[in-house]
């Protein structure tokens, strides 16, 4: 089996799984309980918080644990809207955001907020000039993703951060779910960022656990109310085993990160070089510095993406159409649509996504397996076009 769908989810690291099991069995008290078992769980929780903060370069009290990237995005956006609605109701985002961001701002629009959705260029990036023009006196939030989940484009976070230095009251949220472990931190983090979303299962942690970074003294309202956990901002008994396992996974992820990213880029490069000159293939994820090393999106034009996915799946090779969230719905890539890619090309798109556990031998096997499939589909498509 070859697994090239790491942007959808990653396999849990054995060490992280061991941590999860050990904490679940041995430290099972409620961190809010006053007795010794509760205190053991609380100490474990805070140790994990300190570790995550240290690894990401933040302060422990700026780290909040959530159920994953979707909740972190929802909380950053809706929590800002609730906290700042008296000061303004204008939100800016991009046309290529993950549904957790896009659907959050659209829900707020139904509740009376105004939303500006920035267009992107042919490479899937927003224009900082467009953002500058869109900012108003009543703008309360700018939410721009770090790394696009469908094509791997890196947004100009540094330039946006520099721009927003002149607008200190506007919250700046970055969905960084696809950004960790790719040696991109210097591109996707800026001191002006107020909120960042992360998801444990994207970097070999368990599912159902995530992180929201909230810069100190920035105000957001809670979405989850209850017993007052996470400093009264995110109630609900903390998932201590998953939090500890995620912290372990993050530490392992960031060990030798440059070498891991280089390895992913080499795998991407090998498949890219194979595909680049093939008639009927259109690639959306070049080997440039403004694209992540782990995502390769391309179309075998005229053949629906799900057809290619299922054909390769029958050969033991797993990848997806575009995002995992939309692939089962059979709809075209929202990112490619925003890039004004023709529908016929967009619905043919597939996404390979790599991690450090993939090998060059797997890249070779993909190429060997894909070649006859490509020849078959290209002949059918080319013959069909000639017939017309």
Automatic annotation (TrEMBL):
It holds the Pfam family Aminotran_5. InterPro entries: Aminotrans_V_dom, Aminotrans_V_PyrdxlP_BS, Cysteine_dSase, PyrdxlP-dep_Trfase, PyrdxlP-dep_Trfase_major, PyrdxlP-dep_Trfase_small. The keyword Iron-sulfur applies. Its cofactor is pyridoxal 5'-phosphate. PROSITE patterns: AA_TRANSFER_CLASS_5 (PS00595). GO terms for molecular function: cysteine desulfurase activity; iron-sulfur cluster binding; metal ion binding. Gene3D superfamilies: 1.10.260.50, Aspartate Aminotransferase, domain 1, Type I PLP-dependent aspartate aminotransferase-like (Major domain). Keywords: Iron, Iron-sulfur, Metal-binding, Pyridoxal phosphate. It comes from the Bacteria. Residues 2-366 form the Aminotransferase class V domain. PANTHER family: CYSTEINE DESULFURASE ISCS 2-RELATED (PTHR11601:SF50), CYSTEINE DESULFURYLASE FAMILY MEMBER (PTHR11601). Belongs to the class-V pyridoxal-phosphate-dependent aminotransferase family. NifS/IscS subfamily. This is Aminotransferase class V domain-containing protein. It comes from Amylolactobacillus amylotrophicus DSM 20534. The lineage of its organism: Bacteria, Bacillati, Bacillota, Bacilli, Lactobacillales.
């Amino acid at each position: 089996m070859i697994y090239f769908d790491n942007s959808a989810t990653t396999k849990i690291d054995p060490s992280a799984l061991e941590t999860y099991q050990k904490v679940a069995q041995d430290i099972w008290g409620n961190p809010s309980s006053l007795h010794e078992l509760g205190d053991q769980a609380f100490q474990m929780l805070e140790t994990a918080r300190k570790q995550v903060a240290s690894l990401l370069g933040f302060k422990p009290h700026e780290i909040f644990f959530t159920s994953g990237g979707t909740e972190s995005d929802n909380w950053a956006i809706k929590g800002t809207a609730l906290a700042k609605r008296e000061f303004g109701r204008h939100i800016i985002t991009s046309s290529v955001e993950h549904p957790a961001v896009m659907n959050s701002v659209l829900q707020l629009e139904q509740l009376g907020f105004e939303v500006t959705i920035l267009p992107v260029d042919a490479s899937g990036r927003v224009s900082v000039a467009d953002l500058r023009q869109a900012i108003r006196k009543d703008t309360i939030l700018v939410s721009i993703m770090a790394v696009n989940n469908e094509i791997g484009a890196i947004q100009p976070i540094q330039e946006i951060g520099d721009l927003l230095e002149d607008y200190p009251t506007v919250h700046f949220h970055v969905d960084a779910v696809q950004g960790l472990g790719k040696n991109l931190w210097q591109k996707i983090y800026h001191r002006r960022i107020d909120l960042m979303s992360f998801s444990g299962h994207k970097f070999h942690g368990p599912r159902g656990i995530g992180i929201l970074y909230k810069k100190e003294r920035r105000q957001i309202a809670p979405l989850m109310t209850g017993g007052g956990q996470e400093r009264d901002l995110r109630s609900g008994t903390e998932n201590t085993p998953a939090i500890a396992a995620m912290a372990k996974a993050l530490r392992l992820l960031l060990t030798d990160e440059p070498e891991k990213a280089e390895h992913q880029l080499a795998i991407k490069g090998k498949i890219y070089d194979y595909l680049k000159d093939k008639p009927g293939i259109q690639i959306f994820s070049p080997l440039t510095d403004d694209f992540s090393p782990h995502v390769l999106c391309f179309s075998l034009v005229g053949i629906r993406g799900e057809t290619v996915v299922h054909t390769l799946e029958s050969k033991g090779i797993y990848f997806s159409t575009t995002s995992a969230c939309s692939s089962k719905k059979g709809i075209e890539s929202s990112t490619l649509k925003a890039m004004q890619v023709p529908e016929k090309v967009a619905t043919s798109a597939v996404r390979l996504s790599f991690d450090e556990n993939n090998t060059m031998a797997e890249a070779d096997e993909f190429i060997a397996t894909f070649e006859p499939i490509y020849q078959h589909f290209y002949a059918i498509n080319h013959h069909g076009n000639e017939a017309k």
